[in-house]
Structure formats: structure tokens, C-alpha cells
Write a structure and sequence with these properties.
heterodimer; A: 8-stranded mixed beta sheet; globular; B: elongated; disordered N terminus
Chain lengths: 329, 285
């Protein structure tokens, strides 16, 4: 595929001040998204995946320092002032959140919140906005959309609220959707529906998606490419099928092994030993070294760079896994 | 998909009904409602002209002709307490409403933007709050000169800080909800996010505090009246009335007691309403 790259992130770092110390939540993260591509951003809690997403649209700079380069259609949007960012936010890049319970304003009807986006980003008239809002609600699978327009968020179930949120985000037909764990707060049956909805709409609108999640199953089902984050850095990156089938970074391998597969009942499930390091006390060398089974001496003193290990694949490891996964399966 | 289509607009309506079932809230509404009527139409309820001097009936104890007795000039105490409702209810509103409006706007802006403005605001709040409220107000009135208008200005100058502090905290808490972040990433203007999204969600504690503050304003206004810094005699005002009765507290106790009861009752009314509103407006789940 030779589609156009729409988002190009280079050396993105986000640092929050805490007292006198600095918490580096995101360190030197680079990736790009092509038109219509679905990119997965995976990692455990605190790995920096949500902050990365929030930094792209300038949400993090309210609370911390963001450096690096975020090129949207060739324009560096990281340095844009708020006012110039506004047409891009919601109009070209939209975002949906993890908690459908709090991501809608409880005091306004969903109709008001839907038409608000249209008002900000289109020049549709009042009646046209309402028609479009009904159309969007119908599109995301809300039954009886015309009458639901005047309902308040608390009158919807969690899954329905997430659908409304998607309708709001996509109303202005953005080119890229940032989805911050959109299905984590929903139960499993609804999760699949919401993911299918996002993917089918993305496909229909030729919209790129960055999907942040900690669920490898979701990534396997939905994404073309995946970036695995650990302690604020991308440790492995590549096409989903290759990365998940034959992970090279020991952390990715650990994540894969943590997903229970064909295990008999009542057996101990695998988990990566240890806990992620605190962001204010990162070890010198590889951040994963203290938990790593393939650790070598150099890992403790020097940080492995993210380097190409084959075409289209990157990993940051001095001693990568030699595809033992396939053999053990 | 199990999505229950709730057609009836539940929530607010049922809450209102539940709140109205509470005797305290109802009593508060009754007290303040009646107080407001007294404040608007004092002549309709006062049996005598509050400023009519009758030297033949000086310091008479409560009787059927004068239920609250008469003062040292023979004026009817009941009529004076009733006519004071106008000033005192006006005080409850005017001394607080501007402080509330300024505080809400400043608090919302500071809570949304944070940064340098927030730090300066924090120091200012610390500086003002370390002084006792009454002392600061007296200092401002001393500069501006006594009188009702200056008293309102003084109370507003000091009082907005409390509203702003409350509003700031609440806006910061609301910012933690994703709808605020969603508003930003949808590309809405700051003004829209602050005043349309954050403010209505953050206003509840301020409204509740406002009710309590109205009670406090009456108390404060009466205190200043008592000290001669607020309403000036012969204007009937509860604090002034209590001050007038001070010299006769052993011989004509009713002169200070009756306006005192009026203060307590009105204050109770506002507090009960505040309490009921807190239940009524508590955010829905």
C-alpha cells in the first residue's frame, strides 16, 4: 500500500513536574499513521500510552512539558497556539475516551452535544445540524435516533453512551480518530460491537485510527500495525501479525504469554515477574532489565536503541527473543 | 444490547418531589417566602407607622395593643421589626449576589487556566482568609465611610474570595472528567468549555453556600448596624434595633430580643433551604 502518511510523530517526549523531580511519562516516541491505517498502542497501566495520545492534541501541555515533533498533514501541530489548533481538534483529528460515564456532559442532552461539534466545525444551519445529528446517531446504531436526541446521557447505558461519543467524535468527519481504551469500561459483548463499529466507520470514511489498549486480543483483531510501550518508550513496533506471532522483545513475549491460552482449569497463570519501574526511578540501561529473563550485563548499563530488526519491524533489545513462541505453541 | 429506553424525563422531577417531602426544606421555603412577602409589603403587615413617636407609651412591655412592646420613644416594636425586613432581606441578597457572581467567574477562570494566575490567586486567598471576615469588612467600611451601600461594597470586596475558592476547587474537580478533555479535543473555544460545560456542572456547592452566606450576610449586616457602620438610625434594621435596646436590656428586654428572634428565624430559613438544595442538586449518578 502506498497511501499517504497523515500523522508523523518524531521524538515525542512528555514530562510532568512533581515537586522538584520530573516524571518522564513519554520518552522519545516516534511513529506514523497512514491514511486509513489502524495502529495499536499497547502497554500496561502507566506505560505512557494514554499520555502519548493526549500529547498529540495538546491536552498534556496544560499539565506538563511536551517536546518533539507531531506533523499532521505536514504541519507541526505541537507548536501551534490553542486557537490555531481548534479547527484541527474535532474537525480533522477526533478523540474518544475510556470512560463513557464521564466523557459526556451530564447536564446537556446528547442532541445539544452532537450539534455543538457540528456548529464548531461545519457551516450547517440549525435544521441541517439536527438532521445530521440524527443521521449520526442512526449510523452508530442508536435505535429511534430522532427521539433519543433529547435524552440526557444518564438515560443511556454504558455501551450506548460510547456509541454517542463516537457519533460526536465522527460528526465532523475527521481523518484520524484517537481512541483511548474505548472498550475497557464496557462488558465483553459490548466491546466487540463497539470495536466493529469503530472499524467499519473508519473503513467507510477512510479514517486512520490510533487505538490505545492493554488488550492484545483487541489489537490482534483490529490493528494493522502495533507499537508496544514500556516505561514511556516504544520497545517493539511492526505489523500486528508478525509482532504477535513472533515477538522479539522479551516484554512483548511476556505480554503474549500472559494471555491465557488453552490452559487447563486451576493452573497458575503466567505473569511477567516484578512490577513496572516508577517513572521517577528508572534504572540506567534498559528499563525492562530488572524483569527480563534474557538480561545481559550490557542491558543494565546501556539503553538499547529502537532499531530495525527486519523489514518493517523495530525492537529495542540487545538480546531479542529468537522466536521460541512458535515452537512452544 | 440491553438499553432501557427511558422516555419519561426522570431525575430532576422525582428529586424535586423527594426534596419537597422533607419538612426542613419546606419549612425553609415557608420562612423565606413569608420573609420576602414581609420585605416587599411591610405596610400591609405592620400595625403602626414604624417611625411614629408616642411619648405616652414609652417602653411598654408586650401587650395586645403592642405585641412586641414599644421602644424608648414609644414606637411600636413589631412595626419596626417588620419594616426592618425590607432592609435586612435586601442585605441578604445585595451583600452576597455580586460576591457570588464575581467569585464564580474568577474561580472558574482560575480553575480552568491554572498557571501564574492561579498562584497569585492562591496567595491572595491566603492573605484574605487569614484575617477574620468582620475585621476586614470593618476596615473597608472605615475607609469608605458607614452606610448601607458602602457596607455592600465592603462585604463584596471580601466575600467573593470564598465563592472563588469554592468554584476553583469544583472546576478543577470537573476538569478530571473526560467531558472537559473531550470539549478541548473537539475544538471548542475556552469560553464555551468554561461557561457552558464546566460552570453548570460545578455550580452546585456555590449555590448551596450562597444560601448559607445570605444568612451570614444578615448576621454581618446586623453586626455592622449594631456597631453603627451599616444602616443608620432612625432606619429600622435588626442590628440597629438590637443596639437601641442595649441600654435597656434589664428593663425593656423585648427591644433586643424581638429583632434577635427575627435574625435567627431568617437565618434558619436560609440554612434549611441551602440544606434542601444540596440534596436536590447533588449530581446524578
Amino acid at each position: 500500500m502506498t497511501t499517504q502518511t497523515i500523522l508523523d510523530v518524531k521524538g515525542l517526549s512528555t514530562t510532568f513536574a512533581r515537586g522538584n523531580s520530573a516524571l518522564k511519562a513519554v520518552r522519545d516516541v516516534s511513529f506514523s499513521v497512514r491514511e486509513g491505517e489502524v495502529l495499536g498502542l499497547v502497554g500496561e497501566s502507566g506505560s505512557g500510552k494514554s499520555v502519548t495520545l493526549r500529547s498529540l492534541l495538546g491536552l498534556s501541555r496544560r499539565y506538563g512539558k511536551v517536546s518533539g515533533e507531531v506533523r499532521w498533514m505536514g504541519q507541526d501541530i505541537l507548536s501551534l497556539p490553542e486557537r490555531k489548533l481548534r479547527p484541527i481538534r474535532g474537525g480533522e483529528i477526533a478523540m474518544i475516551f475510556q470512560e463513557p460515564m464521564t466523557s459526556l456532559n451530564p447536564l446537556l442532552t446528547v442532541g445539544v452535544q452532537l450539534t455543538e461539534t457540528l456548529k464548531a466545525h461545519t457551516d450547517l444551519g440549525r435544521a441541517a445540524r439536527r438532521d445530521r445529528a440524527i443521521e449520526m446517531l442512526d449510523h452508530v446504531g442508536i435505535p429511534d435516533p430522532a427521539s433519543r436526541l433529547d435524552a440526557y446521557p444518564h438515560q443511556f447505558s454504558g455501551g450506548m453512551r460510547q456509541r454517542v461519543m463516537i457519533a460526536i467524535a465522527l460528526a465532523a468527519e475527521p481523518k484520524l480518530l484517537l481512541a483511548d481504551e474505548p472498550t475497557t469500561a464496557l462488558d465483553v459483548t459490548i466491546q466487540a460491537q463497539i470495536l466493529d463499529l469503530i472499524l467499519s466507520l473508519a473503513d467507510e470514511m477512510n479514517m486512520g485510527v490510533i487505538l490505545v489498549t492493554h488488550d492484545l486480543g483487541v489489537v490482534a483483531q483490529t490493528c494493522e500495525n502495533v507499537a508496544v510501550m514500556y516505561a514511556g518508550r516504544i520497545v517493539e513496533q511492526g505489523p500486528v501479525r508478525q509482532v504477535l506471532r513472533a515477538p522479539r522483545h522479551p516484554y512483548t513475549e511476556g505480554l503474549m504469554r500472559s494471555v491465557p491460552q488453552d490452559v487447563p482449569p486451576r493452573t497458575q497463570l503466567y505473569s511477567v515477574p516484578g512490577t513496572p519501574p516508577g517513572l521517577d526511578a528508572l534504572p540506567t540501561g534498559c528499563a525492562f532489565a530488572p524483569r527480563c529473563q534474557n538480561v545481559k550485563d550490557i542491558c543494565r548499563t546501556e539503553r538499547p536503541p529502537l532499531a530495525a530488526i527486519s523489514t518493517a519491524r523495530l525492537a529495542a533489545c540487545f538480546n531479542p527473543v529468537c522466536n521460541s513462541m512458535e515452537a512452544s505453541r | 444490547m440491553t438499553d432501557t429506553a427511558v422516555s419519561a424525563p426522570e431525575g430532576r422531577e422525582t428529586r424535586l418531589r423527594i426534596a419537597l417531602r422533607k419538612p426542613g426544606f419546606l419549612l425553609g421555603i415557608a420562612i423565606i417566602g413569608f420573609s420576602t412577602i414581609l420585605a416587599v409589603f411591610p405596610e400591609a403587615f405592620a400595625p403602626y407607622d414604624p417611625n411614629f413617636i408616642d411619648y405616652n407609651a414609652v417602653k411598654q412591655p408586650p401587650s395586645s395593643a403592642h405585641p412586641f412592646g414599644t421602644d424608648m420613644l414609644g414606637r411600636d416594636s413589631l412595626s419596626r421589626v417588620i419594616s426592618a425586613y425590607t432592609v435586612n432581606m435586601q442585605m441578604a441578597f445585595l451583600a452576597t449576589v455580586f460576591a457570588m457572581l464575581i467569585g464564580v467567574v474568577v474561580g472558574a477562570l482560575v480553575g480552568y487556566y491554572r498557571g501564574i494566575a492561579d498562584i497569585i490567586f492562591g496567595r491572595l486567598v491566603d492573605a484574605i482568609i487569614t484575617f477574620p471576615f468582620l475585621v476586614l469588612v470593618i476596615a473597608v467600611v472605615a475607609v469608605l465611610g458607614p452606610g448601607l451601600t458602602n457596607m455592600y461594597i465592603a462585604i463584596t470586596l471580601v466575600g467573593w474570595v470564598y465563592y472563588a475558592r469554592l468554584m476553583r476547587a469544583e472546576v478543577i474537580a470537573q476538569m478530571g472528567n473526560d467531558y472537559a478533555a473531550a470539549g478541548i479535543v473537539m475544538g471548542y473555544s475556552d469560553r464555551r468549555i468554561i461557561f457552558r460545560h464546566l460552570l453548570p456542572n460545578a455550580i452546585t456547592p456555590v449555590v448551596v453556600y450562597w444560601m448559607t452566606d445570605m444568612a451570614l450576610a444578615i448576621l454581618l449586616g446586623s453586626s455592622l448596624g449594631y456597631l453603627g457602620l451599616g444602616a443608620q438610625p432612625p432606619q429600622a434594621e435588626w442590628g440597629v434595633l438590637i443596639a437601641e435596646g442595649r441600654n435597656f436590656i434589664t428593663t425593656a428586654w423585648w427591644l433586643s430580643l424581638m429583632p434577635g428572634i427575627a435574625i435567627v428565624l431568617t437565618g434558619l430559613g436560609f440554612s434549611l433551604i441551602g440544606d434542601g438544595l444540596a440534596d436536590l442538586l447533588r449530581p446524578r449518578g
